[in-house]
Write a structure and sequence with these properties.
The chain is globular. The chain contains three helices and 46 strands. The chain has a 22-stranded antiparallel beta barrel. The protein has a five-stranded mixed β-sheet with strand order 3-9-10-7-8. The longest helix has 7 residues. The protein is mainly beta. 3% of the residues lie in helices and 54% in strands.
Length: 799
């Protein structure tokens, strides 16, 4: 029976009701998952629909040792894999887990939490990617394939959802044939809006004995308004051109407008258990931070100033806009396929926030902005990749090509540092609470690479794959120290200052320094695969990946270097590249006519020159502050196992199980001014255990309908969110949690229409998705959504 299953063509379904065949493109050509000699997980459209995820971050539950959270204070992806993860919003920081959409590398974590409506399949490549995938990574890659237009098909697909916190989501797609067998168009659009699940309900005070005097003795609670609502519009237009059987060209336009609320924070200073207790932070100076007397629920104790002053635009919410044009061309040249991937993407981000999660209100209504800021950036990215995948018809085939990406980013932040008014005198230009302190820098980056990977079959059962990639990364950074607007100097042209980016280093070049970075790296991968039996495949892989060096968009904060521009230039230097050497072995197997699939991987990864962000406490002009440092501080070793299993024990029932274990430890961790042995802390975003159990049962109801029930339990262990440099008590963690989700779908047998009831976080768990300690000044946290109920209806018309 296993031999029969192995001989079925890709994409077929076993007649006995077995598991569907899974085809992946992890080697840049279509291969069966079960004989692909690398660690890759695939999530298809069927599982996506039944799981009803909010975005691709929710799909991490179905991949071992892959976890998703958000970056503190932002709706940005914090993906982590095999001991390395993204924990900061630094715009020049290259994430260790890359996200590619139709082969275009999405450069910004701010827009990596993609909607799942138009997705055909998600593949997660675990471990360093140092050969075939654009921009090297040390953790892995998430590759997303969207649905393509279909020739000669007229079709409309739509769905609408309504749920808790006033959530409303409408999505639709239309497939339109334009020229028979030659040209087809697919239009996709969606809108999501919600009221948010936080309340602006934190209490404060009394603040006493500090200036400005109008805040002395003030206490109270905020207005209990809703915070954290979403308002996102998105669309894609896709034009597929196939003039003959040899040529296929897909042209896409991407459009995104995110006008969601600023991300709320909950102040958790009172939880600090280290020396000095909560007063080691600014708890006393902030006034006694008091819990909302009406509720101990952290979701009802968030705080926002709603400030619209000093270049802070809180009432406008976050404003993220994306416009992208992409062209993917495949040409069959007889002995293989020549592929070109071209793309241009422009992203504009305006991101206000009340970072401390604490607010005081004066009797005249003015809020005390302990730390309000707008982080704004403009980012233009161009990418070109050309590759050739051979089909020689013999024992040897290869993939070879070149990659180029050019990226230009301008960044500025404006801050109202009202906490400084509680510590000392005002600025020369007025109170800190009303005078913006600004920091701007910019970067131009070019990444080039040549790569090749070949596969040789010694026998039909024994295959060797080996490849290498040589990369050139060149970056130039411009920056100046943080300063008041009045000290910026003369602009190069008349400038109207309406937002932080008007203060860019190119508009005000005085005291701007530039720093260059040049990286040259050879990375590689080698895999040996053995089809031991028709149903059991063994493989072993050795690989090296690297993550390019990066600059720090926060260097120069608080004018820590005075007027010494040479010292500032030295401090602004980029980090060295981060290196990962990985060794893994695994088995992929199917039994009982494809009714049971069992895939197991063991891995050992050694990291060196890990790039770490450190918030270092400093004193400037006698006042406590911090400087954000970005350094190669550590080496580490991660060992782990990854299990994926699926089964259809009876017709209609599909069971899935995912298990991830990782033992992640630093070998060394050295950093300036460290108050303890930093190597005793766990690695960032590296939960020791992760598991998911999922079941889907489909039963017919008469001849016209079917009922589909899905449920899953997903566990993620406790993991470090940010690391304090002065005391281990200051480390912040995302707590362990088990989330229960379910859906029940009544559908017409051909899926022409359906009604689905959705439940997420059914036990109403409170769990952290981001938390940070800002150098002992404050500790603020974001929490995951509470219990959610929703109803979704959908339909499909046409062929």
């Amino acid at each position: 029976m296993a031999q029969v299953a192995a001989d079925r063509p890709a994409g077929a379904v076993a007649s006995s009701g077995g598991l569907e065949e899974i085809v992946v493109t992890a080697t840049r050509r279509e291969t069966r998952l079960q004989d692909t000699p690398i660690a890759v997980s695939a999530i298809d459209q069927s599982l996506i629909e039944q799981a009803s995820p909010r975005d691709i971050g929710d799909l991490a539950a179905f991949v071992p040792n892959f976890s998703a959270a958000t970056i503190a204070n932002f709706n940005a992806a914090s993906f982590a894999m095999r001991g390395v993860g993204q924990t900061n919003i630094i715009v020049y920081f290259e994430p260790p887990v890359a996200v590619l959409v139709d082969d275009f590398v999405v450069p910004s974590v701010q827009t990596q939490l993609l909607d799942t409506f138009d997705i055909a399949q998600v593949e997660v490549l675990r471990g360093p990617q140092g050969t075939l995938f654009g921009k090297n990574t040390t953790g892995g890659a998430v590759t997303v394939r969207t649905k393509r237009p279909e020739m000669n098909v007229v079709g409309v697909e739509g769905r609408a959802q309504y749920g808790s916190f006033g959530t409303r989501r409408v999505q639709g797609a239309a497939n339109v044939p334009i020229l028979e067998d030659v040209l087809a168009l697919r239009l996709v659009a969606g809108h999501e809006k919600s009221q948010g699940y936080y309340r602006n309900g934190a209490c404060y005070g009394p603040v006493a004995g500090f200036s400005p005097s109008k805040f002395d003795g003030v206490s109270g609670c905020l207005d209990n308004s809703r915070l954290g609502g979403k308002d996102v519009w998105s669309a894609r237009a896709k034009l597929l051109f196939q003039p003959n059987s040899k040529i296929s060209a897909l042209l896409q336009y991407e459009w995104l407008r995110d006008r969601s609320d600023a991300v709320p924070s909950v102040n958790e200073n009172g939880l600090f258990e280290g020396p000095g207790g909560a007063d080691a932070f600014l708890t006393t100076l902030l006034g006694t931070i008091r819990q909302n007397p009406n509720s101990a629920d952290p979701l009802k104790n968030a705080a926002s100033t709603n400030r619209f002053a000093g270049l802070i635009s809180m009432p406008l919410g976050q404003r993220v806009s994306v416009d992208g044009v992409y062209l993917n061309v495949d040409i069959d040249v007889g002995v293989g396929t020549l592929t070109s991937v071209s793309g241009y993407r422009f992203q504009r981000s305006r991101l206000p926030n009340s970072y401390a999660g604490a607010v005081a209100i004066a009797p005249d209504g003015e809020p005390l902005s302990f730390f309000d800021a707008n982080r704004d950036d403009d980012r233009k990215t161009y990418q070109q990749e050309v590759r050739f995948a051979s089909d020689f018809g013999g024992p040897f085939d290869m993939v070879a090509g070149g990659f180029y990406q050019k990226d230009k980013t301008e960044f500025c932040v404006a801050q109202l540092l009202g906490f400084q008014d509680l510590l000392g005198p005002p600025t020369p230009y007025g109170p800190w609470n009303q005078t913006p302190f600004t920091l701007c820098n910019a970067q131009k980056a070019e990444s080039k690479a040549l790569f090749a990977e070949g596969t040789f079959k010694f026998t039909p059962e024994l295959t060797l794959t080996a490849g290498a990639r040589y990369s050139w990364d060149d970056k130039t950074w411009w920056g100046r120290q943080q300063t008041f607007i009045a000290n910026l100097g003369t602009p190069v042209r008349p400038v109207t200052i309406n937002e932080p980016l008007d203060l860019s280093v190119f508009n005000f070049p005085d005291n701007v320094v530039s720093v260059d970075m040049h990286n040259r790296k050879l990375t590689y991968r080698g895999s040996l695969g053995w089809q031991a039996t028709p149903s059991v495949f063994f493989y072993g892989t050795v690989s090296r990946g690297y993550k390019g060096g990066g600059f720090n968009d926060q260097i120069g904060g608080f004018a820590a270097f005075g007027a010494d521009l040479d010292a500032f230039r030295e401090a602004a230097k980029a980090t060295n590249p981060e290196i990962a050497d990985s060794y893994e072995a695994g088995v992929k197997s199917e039994f009982f006519d494809r009714r049971l699939r069992f895939n197991l991987t063991g891995f050992h990864v050694k990291y060196k020159d890990l790039q770490k962000q450190l918030n270092v406490p400093i004193v400037v002009n006698g006042l406590p502050n911090q400087v954000t440092m970005f350094v190669n501080a550590a080496s580490a070793t991660v060992n782990g196992i990854e299990l994926e299993t699926s089964a259809t024990p009876v017709d209609g029932l599909t069971l899935r199980g995912v298990l991830g274990y990782q033992d992640a430890k630093y070998n060394r961790y050295t950093a300036p001014n460290a108050g303890y042995d930093l190597a005793t802390a766990p690695l960032d975003r590296a939960p020791k255990w992760q598991w998911t159990l999922d079941a889907t049962y489909e039963v017919p109801i008469g001849d016209e309908f079917k009922l589909i029930a899905n449920g899953n339990a997903a566990y993620t262990g406790r993991n470090l969110s940010t690391q304090a440099i002065d005391t281990p008590f200051g480390n912040t963690y995302l707590n362990a949690r088990t989330l229960l989700n379910a859906s029940l779908t009544l559908a017409q047998v051909d899926d022409k229409y359906f009604v689905r009831v959705i439940g997420r976080n059914l036990t109403d768990k409170r769990y952290r998705i981001a938390s940070q300690n800002v150098a002992g000044l404050w500790l603020n946290t974001q929490f995951g959504p509470p219990r959610f109920y929703g109803v979704e209806v959908g339909m499909k018309f046409g062929q």
